[in-house]
Amino acid sequence: MDTPNPFRSLALDWEAMGRSARARMALRRWRHAEPSLAGFDSPADVVARCQRRGDPRAANALVGALLRLAADDDLAARAVLQAVLPSLAARAWRRRWDAGHEGAWDGVEEVDAELVACALERIRELSGTSPEWPAQAIVEVAYARFRWAADVARRRRPRTVPLGPSHDLPAEPADRPDLGSVLVEAVRDGTLRRRDAALIYATRVLGYNPGEIAEHQRRDVRAVRYQRARAERTLVAVSR
Fold it and tell me: Above 90 in pLDDT, residue 38?
């Protein structure tokens, strides 16, 4: 059975969700905090206006209103994701072939899903704030993180050398697998998110420091350190 494309699945899901009775009730609440949302019949109509070309400033003002509401409303966060979905899909299309064959993901569906996950993470970070160009602040940073994950996979590939019995290497204890294998297994069984495993690998194996990664991802270095510490605590806890 084929894996559904994440962008198509999200669009179909939004068709029902964005015009539901629950969504219309939510919009009535949102109007009190964000008057710019008045005049729309449903969140689906708001998103459709965000995606309309020709007036990026007006579209971004609506995305910004939804983003401020997203701090306390999951449906508003979902509307933000839907609003930027066409831009994400365009970025994913550029990298599907290469990224899907760099060893980071198994097929184009996983490439798309990874970019959507990066966008959701960025939306959570910006929820409740008012960046000047919110759609750009979400899409550009999400794509930068996505590219970084692909770069980590590409850098890792030349370092992976098949070893045979003839290689004269110091013996490792049989019960001590290498960190790369541990991380792959942790992602496979759901213990770690892929991006958390990539961060541990990049800093502990490839030699990047948190400051370099923070600069590349346009993040606060403290957030990168916290992400790594949390991921490593999780890894240690399940390894005991």
Answer: yes
